[in-house]
C-alpha cells in the first residue's frame, strides 16, 4: 500500500510551479487567516481537488521547505496569556529561519481583530538575545514590554506553499511539526497537517476553504506557538484550548492517547 507521503509527492508533481519572485504578489502582509488541521492521510485528496485552482511554490526544483522559528515572550508569558484570554489585539514575535535559502527575519504577527492579521518583518541574524537594534524595530509596531523579551520555544516544520491561479489567495500546509525548548525538551507531532488559508478580504470566495468544507474539515483556531507551549508544559493554564489539544493528540497518537 502506498504511504500518504508517497501519494502526496505524486500529486505535487502534477502542479504547475510558481517562482519565489512571482510569489511576491501574494505576500498578503495584511490579511484574513483561516486555519485548519487534519490527518496527513487526507492531503492527497485535498491536493488533487486543488490542482486546477493553485500553483505550488518551487525553488531550485524543490517544493517542500523547512522552516525554523524561535518565539519570544515576556517572563510572565504575556503573548501566551493574551491569546488565552481571547484579547482581540495581540501579537507574537519570532525569528524565522528559512532553512533552504538561509534567510532570517525578525517578525511581528499582530492580530487586529478576530481573523485579520498584520505581519511586519525585517532581516536580521538569528540570535537568542534581543538587541537594541531589534527593540528599535519592534517599537515601530508594538508597545515594547517593560519586562523585556526572552526566548520561549522553537517550532520546526516542513511547508508547502500554494498560490491561487486566478485569485489572490495563498495557502500553506505544514507537516512534520516539532516543538522544542531552549533546554532541548522536544515534542514531535506525527500525522498532523496544519493548513492556513490567507486572503485579503473576509467576503471573498475562497476555493480552498470550499474544498475543505466539502470534505467536512472545519476551521480550527489555534496557533503553533500556543499549541507548542501547552504540549511542552502541560501544567500551564490552557482550559480555553483543552478540547483543541485533545483533538490534536487524537490525530497524532490515536484515540487511546491519554491527555
Based on the model shown, name its key terms:
eight-stranded antiparallel β-barrel; 7 helices
Topology of this structure?
Blueprint: H1 4-12, E1 17-18, E2 30-39, H2 43-50, E3 54-57, E4 65-73, H3 78-84, E5 90-98, E6 103-111, E7 116-123, H4 132-139, E8 150-164, E9 169-181, E10 186-189, E11 192-199, H5 207-214, H6 224-232, H7 242-253
The N- to C-terminal Cα distance equals 31 Å
Helix/strand-derived category reads: alpha+beta
Please give the domain count: 1
Any idea of the CATH class?
A: Mainly Beta
Task: Characterize the structure shown.
The protein has helices spanning 4-12, 43-50, 78-84, 132-139, 207-214, 224-232, 242-253; strands at 17-18, 30-39, 54-57, 65-73, 90-98, 103-111, 116-123, 150-164, 169-181, 186-189, 192-199. The protein has a single domain (4-253), classed as Hypothetical Protein Pfu-838710-001 (Beta Barrel). Helix 1 runs parallel beside helix 2 (43-50). It has an 8-stranded antiparallel barrel, surrounded by 4 helices. It has 7 helices and 11 strands. The chain is of the alpha+beta class and 259 residues long. The mean pLDDT is 90.
In brief:
The protein is an alpha+beta fold and 259 residues long.
Amino acid at each position: 500500500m502506498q504511504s500518504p507521503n508517497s501519494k502526496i509527492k505524486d500529486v505535487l508533481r502534477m502542479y504547475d510551479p510558481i517562482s519565489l519572485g512571482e510569489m511576491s504578489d501574494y505576500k498578503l502582509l495584511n490579511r484574513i487567516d483561516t486555519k485548519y488541521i487534519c490527518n496527513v492521510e487526507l492531503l492527497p485528496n485535498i491536493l488533487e481537488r486543488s490542482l486546477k485552482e493553485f500553483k505550488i511554490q518551487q525553488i531550485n526544483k524543490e517544493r517542500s521547505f523547512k522552516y525554523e522559528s524561535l518565539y519570544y515572550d515576556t517572563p510572565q508569558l504575556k503573548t501566551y496569556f493574551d491569546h488565552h484570554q481571547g484579547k482581540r489585539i495581540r501579537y507574537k514575535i519570532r525569528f524565522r529561519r528559512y532553512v533552504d535559502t538561509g534567510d532570517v527575519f525578525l517578525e511581528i504577527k499582530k492580530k487586529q481583530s478576530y481573523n485579520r492579521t498584520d505581519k511586519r518583518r525585517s532581516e536580521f541574524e538569528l540570535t537568542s538575545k534581543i538587541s537594541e537594534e531589534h527593540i528599535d524595530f519592534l517599537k515601530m509596531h508594538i508597545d515594547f514590554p517593560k519586562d523585556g523579551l526572552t526566548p520561549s520555544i522553537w517550532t520546526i516544520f516542513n511547508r508547502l506553499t500554494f498560490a491561487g491561479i486566478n485569485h489572490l489567495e495563498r495557502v500553506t500546509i505544514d507537516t512534520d511539526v516539532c516543538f522544542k525548548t531552549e533546554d532541548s525538551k522536544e515534542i514531535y507531532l506525527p500525522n498532523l497537517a496544519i493548513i492556513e488559508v490567507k486572503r485579503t478580504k473576509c467576503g471573498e470566495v475562497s476555493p480552498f476553504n470550499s474544498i475543505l468544507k466539502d470534505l467536512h474539515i472545519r476551521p480550527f483556531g489555534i496557533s503553533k506557538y500556543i499549541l507548542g507551549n501547552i504540549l511542552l508544559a502541560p501544567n500551564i493554564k490552557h482550559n480555553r484550548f483543552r478540547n483543541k489539544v485533545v483533538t490534536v493528540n487524537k490525530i497524532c497518537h490515536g484515540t487511546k492517547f491519554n491527555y
